[in-house]
Amino acid sequence: MNTSDSHVTIFDTTLRDGEQSPGISLDAAEKLEIAEQLARLGVDYIEAGFPVASEGDFDAVRTIARTVRGPAIAGLSRTNLSDVDRCWDALKDAERARIHVFISTSPVHMKHMLKMDEAQVLAETHAGVARAREHTDDVEFSPQDATRTPLDFMIAVLAAAVEAGATTLNIPDTVGYGIPWDFGALIQYIAKNIPGDYILSTHCHDDLGLATANSLAGVQAGARQVEVCVNGLGERAGNASLEEVVMALAIRPDQFPGLSTRVRTEELARTSRLVARLTGYPVQYNKAVVGRNAFQHESGIHQHGVLAERSTYEIIDASTVGQIGRQIVLGKHSGRHAFADTLAKLGIVVHGDALNAAFARFKDLADRKVEITEADLEAIVAEEIGGVEEAGFTLESLEVAGGTVGVPRAHVVLGRKGAKAEATNEGNGMIDAAFQAIRSATGVEAKLRDFNVSSVTGGADALADVVVQLEAGAVRVSGRGVATDVVEAAARAYLNAVNRVLRAQARAEVRKVEIGP
Ligand code: KIV
Ligand code: ZN
């Protein structure tokens, strides 16, 4: 096993495991935008999806493989030979590509999900990895539910994978069952008992809130790859959070002597904001490293200490993780060129018509808000990225009337493919009236499952940032909207979610294949 390496490989799986979080459904343009930012952040691998799961997944992986430069692009595959071939089809145009083959190895998974015995799992492992090696010499293998797999059997499966050509052995704590010292000991045991030239990797879920701790224990025990998601997204309670693992390695070299990543930490906050916006999963205020309170000091004693000397109460300098917002010199007289130029300087890559749509929103915002910050720009651009791709409904105008007397009423005019749809409705409050009007104009029936308002920056003219979750039959999606007015932001968020419902229904994007718990 290769532990002498001083480099800890960051394998980002936000677009695969992160996208498995309930209510997240990113389209190809949004996935590409996140992948471009991950490249800018400096991750080594982007796991772009599970190509066999749906046409949408396949297209997104292929688009990212063809477009994104820098990180290697990985795709997930079961051990079936046809899955492996399909995965390679999606990946083959990448600068560098990895096939990530997995199969369940715990008794409970083998009995209830795979319906295979140990001999079959061993044979599948060997065949799947060997097939992947015919396509690329970068092959990762994962025994799913490793932490609940009997040690002897796991060693046999991992040895078969190495024999068939796996170059990375990833140890998934699929259900977040591991405890740091126990997980570290498991990594050490594998390293000792499997000879060969491979890298050991961790993939930890957060069911007990230990995903970051377990990943670090794995690194200390010899793992040289960590699988992580931005903002700790992922199945159920999520995966180990990229920003936490990276910053722990950076801040405590005494605990990880000689080890480093290639992540440009100044990009962490922006990456977190982009992912939060496009997925509709807000970051909790007190989230380590990227939460908005991570560098706020409430008590007088702390404030005094930090003013006298930052390190009294801070172990991280906020600027090293991009948590100090830059002011942008753009105003209502700025032209399209200056706008595009500023986005480019900020490293915000906007593809196709999204630039025109974002510019129109910027002009509108500049009329209402004196100071436009980097976070404001990111917010409006992020909102426009997915909208243009599928020619969904756009909000042409919204009028609302309401107050403490009378019944609130809203009138919306929506555009779609050159046509207009409008409706007037009453509601239980101005926001509800706007939602009812959108429902009538679009004809999309959905239940509102969640509604959340926050502000993009501070100040009286801050942009309102609204996230809604809608449920329409089997489809659950989130939508996000920003505007200086909270009712408009809510209407935009609702419309954004309606467009996602339509997209999911049109593509029948119910997953053909599931990965497991
Ligand atoms: O959690 C898990 O086991 C996974 C595998 C597919 C690696 O996500
Ligand atoms: Zn996982």
Task: Report on this structure.
This protein is α/β, with parallel strands linked by helices and 517 residues long. It has 2 domains: 9-279, Alpha-Beta Barrel (TIM Barrel); 394-507, Alpha-isopropylmalate synthase LeuA, regulatory domain (Double Stranded RNA Binding Domain, 2-Layer Sandwich). It contains 16 helices and 14 strands. The chain has helices at 28-41, 55-67, 81-91, 107-114, 118-135, 151-164, 180-193, 211-220, 242-251, 268-279, 300-308, 336-346, 354-368, 374-389, 430-442, 486-506, and strands spanning 9-12, 45-49, 72-77, 97-104, 139-144, 168-173, 199-204, 225-228, 394-401, 409-416, 419-426, 447-455, 464-472, 475-483. The strands form 3 sheets. An 8-stranded parallel barrel has the order 1-2-3-4-5-6-7-8, surrounded by 9 helices. Helix 3 (81-91) links the parallel strand 3 (72-77) and strand 4 (97-104). The longest helix is centred in the C-terminal third of the chain and has 21 residues, at 486-506. The two termini are 29 Å apart. 50% of the residues are buried. The structure holds 3-methyl-2-oxobutanoic acid (KIV) and zinc ion (ZN). The site of 3-methyl-2-oxobutanoic acid has 10 residues, from strand 5.
